[in-house]
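Title: [Solved] Secreted protein 3D structure

Original question kept below for reference.
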Amino acid sequence: MRLDNTRTSGQMRTRRGLALLIATGTGLGSLLLGTIPAHANATTKHVASDGQSVEFKTSDSSKRVRGDITFTVKADGNWEIDAKATNPRPAGRNVHWICDLSWDASDVRHSTGTKWVPRKSSRTLTAEAYDPFIQADFATIVARGTADCDIVIG
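Solution (posted by the thread starter after getting help):
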């Protein structure tokens, strides 16, 4: 006869084992889902006729909050984000936009401030500033630059 000194019943050990199995399966499942590449929205790139600015336009959604964005970079190093967020949900959400601008081996990130979007309404989000890296590599950005802009909830 085997002594049980764990002070737990067989039923309790079975529940713990089942909980461990479920937690392990959930962890592995989320790991596998995390390796699936996310669908990126198509971003259009438009160089102004005078060659002094580049506009990147796209749309995105997260947790049913969606919007459109225009990310503009200029030859003088200034950049600006003009975006909109529409919240169809019954509860308000904090929203901001993040744009990653990439060219060759360089990458910069710019974002709007966070803004509260009440339930079933829309808000405009804007930001602008100067970036010396954009000014220094503007010709390369025109030739090979790409931007990825995402709406962020929270």
